[in-house]
Design brief:
Metal Binding Protein, Guanine Nucleotide Exchange Factor, Chain A, mainly beta, 11% helix, 2 helices
Length: 133
């Protein structure tokens, strides 16, 4: 990976919509079943909406029924970072873009989905842009 993208909040606010800033830079969550990519089945690569780094491929996307796009693996391990998240009275693993440190969502393990990894990367649609093949 190349150098980390570092910008001030003012720079991010100028580049992102208010809702994108809330989710990507303040670790917010979009409403369940409201995101653009929740049920999308188009082929392509999902890239970070803030910086354009490629994060997930469509062939790793699956329908989990949780209300957000779900993937069983990232494009490559170095594309994301994992952070222990103890907010909202829960212990979870937050997922961020490794290139710009934007909040993407969370990853969950051991839920019994019939995927190759038994992982569910639960990602906010607003955190990504689909680049079609």
């Amino acid at each position: 990976m190349s150098e980390k993208i570092v910008k001030s909040d003012e720079q991010w606010r100028a580049e992102l919509s208010a809702e994108e800033f809330r989710v990507l830079r303040e670790a917010g969550t979009e409403a369940a079943f409201a995101g653009e990519y929740t049920d999308t089945e188009a082929n392509g690569v999902y890239a970070c909406r803030a910086c354009g780094a490629e994060l997930f491929r469509s062939d790793a996307k699956f329908h989990s029924g949780c209300g957000w796009p779900s993937f069983f693996t990232p494009l490559a391990a170095e594309t994301i970072t994992e952070i222990k998240d103890m907010s909202h009275g829960m212990v979870r693993t937050e997922i961020r873009c490794a290139a710009c440190d934007s909040h993407l969502g969370h990853v969950f393990e051991g839920e019994g989905y019939k995927t190759p990894t038994d992982l569910r990367y639960c990602i906010n649609s607003i955190s990504m842009t689909l680049i079609s093949d």
